[in-house]
Amino acid sequence: MKKFTLFLLMLVACASILNAQTAITAPGDVKPGKIYWFESGWLVEYGYSTLYYPSASESDAYKDKVWSSYVWQIANDVTDPNQQFTFVEYEGQLYMYSIGAQKFLSWNNDGAHLVDIPTSYVSVSVATSGISANYPWTIAFDGTKLIACYPQNGYEYSGYLYCSGANTANEIYSWQIYEVGDYGDTETLTETLAQNMVVGKQQKEEALVNLQETAYDANEFLFDVAGYSSEGGGQITLQAADEDAGNYIWCNEPELSEGDIANLVDGEPASFFHSRWNGTAEPQHWLQIDLEVPIKDFSFAYHTRVDGGNDFPDVIEVLGSNDGKNFAPVAKFDSRLPQMPNTRWESGTIEAAEEYSHLRFVVTAEHVFFHMAEFYLYEAVKITANEAYLPYKEQLQELEALYYEAMKMLQDENARTADIAELTERIAALHTLIINLVTDADDPLTIEYVNEVKELLSYVGVGYPAETPRATVKALVDAAEAKPTAQARLDLEKAVEEYISTDDITLPVDGVRYSLTFVIYGGGEMFLKYQDNLLSIEALTDKGLSYPETAAFTCEDNNDGTYSFRTADGRYLTIPGGGTSGSGTESGVSDYKTNFTIVKMYPNGKCESNVTYEMLFGLVALSNSGTYMAPNSNGTTFYTGTLPHFMGSWTSAMVIEEFDGEGGTGIEDVKPEHSNADGIYDLLGRKVENPVKGIYIINGKKVLVK
User: Fold this and answer.
1) Is 669 exposed, middle or buried (0-12, 13-18, 19+ CB in 10 A)?
2) Where are the beta strands (DSSP E) in 511-566?
3) Does 286 lie in the same domain as 205?
4) Based on the domain organization, do 458 and 592 belong to the same domain?
5) Which residues contact 679 (CB under 8 A, 6 or more apart)?
6) Are 264 and 402 contained in the same domain?
7) Between the CA of residue 610 and those of 265, 613, 616, 703, what are the distances in Å?
8) C-alpha closest to that of 485 among 451, 434, 522
């Protein structure tokens, strides 16, 4: 048979579908040449329980993966090629192949991707009682990697591809494999895989050579050109047991009933420390570390309480002392501290004015007391370099770290070609950046980034940054246009991060009519409407949908920092009752004003765990004396709480948009920033094929591409 070029081969396979499905209960019965269909016992009740290749999706982000059909609500059909898979053997291992996609499967970060050259084989095992009920959809490559995706965001699982057995305790949670036919041309498919793997090996060898050359060039530049050297640094081991010993951490007011301070340094994020909530007397709570050896430049980090809901640190002020009594300010951190559980935060390097033997971390929180899961202290690496390069020691240190990462990857037999190429590109880009920073040369990437920031600045309205932060960024844009250096880009990138998370936002205007649209985590939208003396919510199913007049609410500025929203018949929006918690009127409207504060949405304890400021850009919440309302995802019930919600089930996050008086909004009835549309879009709703640095809407979510 003649050899054929990779990526040009089109396979036409004939399948003889059996009338009956044969359940596989032994791993040895899974063989090449057969067609298989998969069923999750946990999903049977829904009628959508198989693996599925979504060929009909318009989004490549979906179409290049295999999913559970529950995501797509595709009814079970063993005759559907998109639900059929076969196995191909290569060098003693089984590789999975999608009949519908005519691609092999390979694991990468977020699931099973469809590829020509697989890098992961499949392990098949008998299901055992060790399968956790919490991980029902576990199909995996190499016994450790995810292949099927949970149909909600934020979940990843690991395990084997299991056969169900009659005596399996957790049989309902494993995948049942069914043989449903014969693959028509196994010989051709096997030869295809073998040839693809040879090509893949060659590509990997070339990628490794490129990585080695790039890494060696960077290393030579570091030491011979930049005169770089580093020493010391690293984590300081803290202890909470002996106040007379070094590196002792303690709190001025610890809680005695729970959350011992030893939990801060036990290496277990599941445990936590809590400052005193039971009768606190001090106006401020702090952590203090009495060091064994004084330090000057350092950083710290902490992990938020895994199951916490409130009382995360709002502000941390760092103080230094050499006598333990008189403290001088060193640094202060606010507005960026995570207000959500199970999240790690890092300070970055703090350059103190002098060495200190005592460090105090004064914490401001909602109710004075606070909690943390873990606390870490690091001494900064001592870096020297030639004078011209010394201002860029952070980039030099990063380049050194990438060099060692490359050396490790060069020894890793399982390294993926795509990862090798990506690391090569990162090293080359950073190397070029440092050279451009030192030479102050024009940087073409700066011009590209300036255009992205201009687009970001063009997005205006309630909830978006006000004039002062906008002017700050605009000034840096003008400077970067006048002299587009790499340093100008770095300055602008830092300013954009602050711009996205600023609390100085545009507020509604008195007398103007607005629509109020809630946004669910994941992209769903529901707008408020008032009809027949009742407030209700309607799902927004069409990006270009015109809002009815019943969705218009007139703003009244109360001139005290609060706002009210009036209905067409002169009544006022209030917090609806009838939720699982909270207050308000059953109808959601009142004859009296409800004074709402317009609050910028921020990551907090009532957000999904991976929510960022970038995802919340432009979203606000309505607060009435610290109480937030949040409808559930189907709009039938309202919940209230002391924090705004942004979850898959409840949300306080809303878009407030000017109503244009003709049944629409003042932005041409388009909401690209919160759209459910598949694919990648810029903030003006234009589809983007190859996103560069900036903010994009990817599959309905706002994402900052770095």
Assistant:
1) middle
2) 513-519, 525-531, 534-539, 553-557, 563-566
3) no
4) no
5) 58, 59, 60, 61, 687, 698, 699
6) no
7) 24, 10, 11, 11
8) 434
Which tens digit of pLDDT belongs to each residue from 650-683? 999 999 999 875 544 433 333 334 433 445 555 4
Phi and psi at 636, nearest 5°, equal -95, -20
* Ordered DSSP codes for 371-391: EESEEEEEEPPEEE--TTTGG
Could you tell me if 533 and 586 lie in one domain? yes
More confident residue, 128 or 512: 512
Q: Could you tell me how many helices (H) and strands (E) the chain has, helices first? A: 7, 40
- Boundary-marking domain end, from 501, 528, 551: 501
DSSP-derived secondary structure letter, 545: P
Dmax (CA) of the chain: 85
CATH code for the domain in which residue 600 is found: 2.80.10.50
Is residue 10 in some structural domain?
no
Residue 57, both tokens: 């999706």
Residue 68, pLDDT above cutoff 90: no
Residue 3 lies in a domain: no
Range of the domain at 411: 199-231+385-438
pLDDT, residue 541, reads 67
Q: Which pLDDT score is estimated for 186? A: 93
Q: Does pLDDT of 323 surpass 90?
A: yes
The residue whose two tokens read 């030491």 is 223
* Tokens read off for 298: 């350092």
Q: Are 462 and 619 within 8 A, CB to CB?
A: no
Q: Is 179 helix (H, G, I), strand (E, B) or coil?
A: strand
Burial 534-553 (b: 16+ CB within 10 A, else e): ebbbbebeeeebebeebbbb
CB 55, CB 28: distance < 8 Å: no
What is the total count of domains within the chain?
5
375 shares a domain with 433: no
Decide if 699 contacts 59 (C-beta within 8 A). Answer: yes
CA distance 492 to 474: 9
Same domain, 568 and 444: no
Q: Tell me phi and psi for residue 337, to 5 degrees.
A: -70, 135
